[in-house]
Each structure stands twice: as C-alpha cells, then as structure tokens.
Write a structure and sequence with these properties.
The protein is of the alpha/beta class. The chain has a single domain, classed as 5'-nuclease (Rossmann fold). It is 60% helix and 11% strand. It has 7 helices and 4 strands. A 4-stranded parallel beta sheet has the order 3-2-1-4. It is globular and about 35 Å long.
Length: 128
C-alpha cells in the first residue's frame, strides 16, 4: 500500500503543475499497489478544484486511481497532536505520516520535510 501526499495528487490533477509528469510517472510505477490518502489530504487536494468549479472532475480522477480514504477515528486527534509536537510538521503532513504508520504503507511525497520525517520514523518512501 502507498499513502499519497497532497503534493503528488495535486500535481497529477493539474496538467500545468511543474511536477505533473513526475506525479504521473510515480503513479504509473505504483503498479498494482493499493493507493490511499487521509481524508484531510483528500480535502486539501480538492480545494483547488472546488475554487475553479471542477470538483466533480477531480473526484472522478481520484476514483479512477482507486484512492482509498483513510478515515479519522476518535483516538487519532491525540496521535496527530503527538506527531505534530514530535516532528514540527504541519498537521496535513502529520495525517500522511499517521496513515502510513497505521497501515505500514510507503509514503509518496514531493515534500522534502515530509520525506525526511518518513525516513527518520523508519517508514518507506515510495520514489520513482
């Protein structure tokens, strides 16, 4: 399983993004591995399409990728707070870390700070 960061999904959805081709290569290289993202990440990804009135198209693209939403349950707020305090990362990045820790998944990101935290915590980076 691969947990996707917003940076990958945003670049994939926006053909004008400077990382668009890299995102497409990364997603193509994922092969048959299951893709997932935290619900916070998915909300972050949908902000741009919501602003431009193309949220339905973005949702269809996420569905085509079969990105599974990782839900937030009752104990997660405390775990997210601890991750934020420990890593100094922004809360959306902590959601990516937590989703990966919960599932033992690799993380796909273009964010260097998040990538560093992933490796420091002993998680696997999915890179292509």
């Amino acid at each position: 399983m691969i947990v996707l960061d917003a940076s990958v999904l945003i670049a994939h959805l926006d053909a004008t993004d400077s990382l668009h081709e890299r995102a497409d290569r990364l997603l193509a290289a994922s092969g048959s591995e299951a893709l997932s993202a935290s619900v916070v990440t998915l909300a972050e990804v949908l902000v741009g399409p919501a602003r431009t009135g193309v949220v339905d198209r973005a949702l269809a693209a996420l569905e085509q990728l079969a990105v599974a939403a990782v839900p937030i349950d009752r104990v997660i707020p405390v775990r997210l707070a601890l991750l934020r305090a420990e890593t100094g990362l922004k809360l959306p990045d902590c959601c990516v870390l937590l989703a990966a820790e919960q599932s033992g998944a690799a993380v796909a990101t273009f964010d260097d700070r998040l990538a560093g935290a992933v490796t420091r915590r002993g998680l696997r980076l999915f890179e292509r």
